[in-house]
């Protein structure tokens, strides 16, 4: 009998990361973890086969913890997933929108439903997690208390969705890295491949300009460039980069070789298939 695979995520059952796991890895068992460290640890110890780690959102930007934890983890990026964030107004059975006086959710989600808060004239109540706020609504068992969370959180907690898609912006989307203990590098001739790498520039004038020059001259499309301070100093900076292409393709290989010449260190975090979402958004 084939063992069911497990994918770990940070948050409570029904969190958007849980939803991302179910969409990206249908049939797998999802494993909720308290924080990103525990999520990564689950894969390191073999408790989970893979982990779903949010890396950026098109409204609030990057997820900073991932920049620090992932490079030190020894895990590799084996895929990516884009999850549309569709906030729902959730209440207990029998509740109506007109009953709601208090709105519970995570602070980021709260900032994404300001229109709803103003139209309903409700009191915002900050909680630690979107899915966790749904669990709180169950415990309160009061029609005047509602949560902002996913429809999955409502389903798992036996709650009712009072209104779908209450977010201010319909394009709210989170991108995730899917990580594992071993690399899963696609064939070099497979189209739509991504490469993620982390490098530290030398502390010399124009180091970043020179390090990235090879990507331009070799016609390599860079989809992401993020900086973070290195070693707790203000003199050295690390950069996380996502580019289109495979490390064994001639153009990207030349670009990385040129990058290494101007960098003190360069680590390939993953070579993996690009999400179909990228092609959909191009058309």
UniProtKB/TrEMBL annotation:
Q: Does the keyword Lyase apply?
A: yes
Q: Name one Pfam family in it.
A: PDT
Please verify whether the record's keywords include Amino-acid biosynthesis: yes
What catalytic activity is recorded? prephenate + H(+) = 3-phenylpyruvate + CO2 + H2O
One GO BP annotation here?
Answer: L-phenylalanine biosynthetic process
Please state every residue range assigned to the domain named Prephenate dehydratase: 6-181
Which Gene Ontology terms of cellular component type are present? cytoplasm
Q: Which NCBIfam families match?
A: PRK11899.1
Q: What is the protein's name according to its record? A: prephenate dehydratase
Q: Which organism is it from?
A: Commensalibacter intestini
């Amino acid at each position: 009998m084939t063992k069911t695979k497990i994918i770990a995520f940070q948050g409570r059952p029904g969190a958007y990361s849980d939803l991302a796991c179910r969409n990206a890895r249908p049939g797998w068992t999802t494993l909720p973890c308290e924080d990103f460290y525990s999520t990564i640890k689950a894969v390191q110890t073999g408790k989970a086969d893979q982990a779903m780690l949010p890396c950026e959102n098109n409204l609030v930007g990057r997820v900073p913890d991932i920049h620090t934890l992932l490079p030190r983890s020894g895990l590799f990026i084996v895929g990516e997933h884009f999850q549309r964030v569709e906030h729902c107004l959730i209440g207990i059975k029998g509740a109506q929108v007109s009953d709601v006086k208090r709105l519970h959710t995570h602070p980021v989600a709260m900032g994404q439903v300001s229109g709803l808060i103003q139209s309903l004239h409700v009191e915002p109540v900050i909680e630690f997690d979107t899915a966790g706020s749904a669990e709180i609504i169950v415990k309160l068992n009061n029609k005047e208390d509602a949560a902002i969370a996913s429809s999955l959180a409502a389903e798992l907690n036996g709650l009712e969705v009072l209104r779908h898609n209450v977010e201010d912006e319909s394009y709210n989307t989170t991108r995730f890295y899917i990580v594992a203990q071993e690399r899963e590098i696609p064939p070099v001739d497979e189209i739509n491949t991504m490469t993620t790498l982390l490098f530290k520039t030398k502390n010399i004038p124009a180091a970043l300009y020179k390090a990235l020059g090879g990507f331009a001259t070799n016609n390599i499309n860079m989809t992401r460039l993020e900086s973070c301070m290195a070693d707790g100093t203000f003199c050295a900076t690390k950069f996380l980069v996502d580019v289109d292409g495979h490390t064994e393709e001639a153009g990207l290989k030349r670009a990385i070789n040129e990058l290494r010449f101007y960098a003190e260190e360069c680590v390939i975090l993953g070579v993996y298939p690009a999400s179909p979402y990228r092609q959909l958004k191009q058309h």
